[in-house]
User: Fold this.
Amino acid sequence: MKEFYDVVAYLKQLLESNPLVHTITHGTPDLIDIDKKNIYPLAHLNVISSSVQPGVVVFSFEVTILDIRNVSKVQVQDKFLGNDNELDNLNTCHAILNYVVTKMKLQNNDFDIELLNEPQFEPMLLKFSNQLDGWRTTLDLAIANNVFVC
Assistant:
């Protein structure tokens, strides 16, 4: 009866174990960037759906990793790199998602949660009020259904 809490705790634990992640939030996408005390990179969890299948409950989560875009006032010397950290943000945020997905695929966990899909990462550029860059993906996670009906 606590499958949902277990999946959320597992995702949060994975994100907390990555030293690059400084803030973890949850809720609808419009809540991603509303706290002025956020420290970036930020990980955001949003539950999308759930289904009950034979023996398991499947939860789909949207996981978004974002970092703040910094623009230098120094005149551009390299037209490819520009005067901001866009590529650095994309690299860092991709590394965080890669870590989470790889760990899910290769290591057992205390909750016996299994990643069912092959996540595709979608880039996000200059999003929300703080002009954030990063990646978003969907994770389909299965956990044993512990509800017994007599």
